[in-house]
User: Fold this.
Amino acid sequence: MDEKGVREPELPNELARQMRQWRQANPKATLTEIEEAVEAELAELRRQLVQEMVQEEAGAKPEVPDCPQCGQAMVKNGRRKRKLQTKEGQTVQLERQQWRCLACGTTLFPPG
Assistant:
């Protein structure tokens, strides 16, 4: 924490350490190769952050939805995993509550 009590992010420090190790292992890398290595690490960091943030939201106590077909209250129908593509083309795996309508059989997997 800094003097204002704000927690310093650890991820940039870890990323910088990894990139220094990569640079030591690749001392003759060109500027383009360095840029590509940095971009690859940033893309992975971005994917991890997005997945963590979405999972945190999904872990909150869900409100019981109404069926979009018949309007009846839905019931829990287990948790399901879903793979989504980010705008950068990376795969993020989410686990969400699936819902089922006992009246008409419709299932619902909340968007994410």
The radius of gyration is 21 Å. Residues 14 and 111 are 32 Å apart (CA to CA). The beta strands are 75-85, 91-100, 107-108. Residues 1-8 have pLDDT under 50 and may be disordered.
